[in-house]
Amino acid sequence: MDIIINDEPRYFDGELLLSELLEQLGLAGKFVAVELNRNVISHKRYAETPLKNDDRLEIVTLVGGG
Known about the structure:
Distance between the termini: 40 Å
Structural class: mainly beta
Low-confidence stretches: none
Number of strands: 7
Largest sheet: 5 strands, mixed
Number of helices: 1
Strand content: 35-45%
Order of helices and strands: EEEHEEEE
Strand order of the largest sheet: 2-1-7-4-5
Helix content: 10-25%
Mean pLDDT: 94
Radius of gyration: 12 Å
């Protein structure tokens, strides 16, 4: 499956849920905001959101500091 993540084309084998993708990217359990095809996805829906070929994601991690 071909997916665009933060403007970079990526390839993944098989079907994925958004939560599985975040796990593969090392982002599971971290504070992130995800936009899928220009729609913000609630973190409560990550485990039930399937990804499809040619989906576009923007993933933003939150950074603390002062």
